[in-house]
Amino acid sequence: MKAVVQRVSRARVTVGGEVVGEIGFGLCVLLGVAGGDDGPAADRLAAKVAQLRVFENDEGRFDRSLLDVHGEALVVSQFTLIADTSKGNRPSFSEAAPPEEAEPIYERFRDALRELGVPVETGEFGASMQVELVNDGPVTIVVDSGPRVPGA
What we know:
The chain has helices spanning 39-51, 66-69, 99-115; strands at residues 2-15, 18-23, 26-32, 55-56, 62-64, 72-77, 120-122, 130-144. By secondary structure, it is of the alpha/beta class. 36% of the residues are buried.
């Protein structure tokens, strides 16, 4: 599981010209689910995103998390993050989880953020979406759920 996390002053996602999710200050999270990802991986990644210290303290240092600043999250599914570009010029998406496996993991990630106290808006899973955001900083971090533990 992989997330591209962008600190934003505002972000929104539209489907068919209609706004389906919108936030102010916080994080825009583009989430890719790989084959074999599971609920515990979603929980770990949600905790990491919620606690990622990418907001400045009074001295200008990255020392505050989304939870500390009471920010919001816009979570958008994006299977293209799992692309393999190591061979040729056409990305391979064979490592991405199929939609019927990916959607429950995406939902678990969203729900885990909410359970941690983060207000969450979302896109529409599997839809063609337009994401608009104002990247604050700019700050963009790639985060993964960490190694899978066999049998866990």
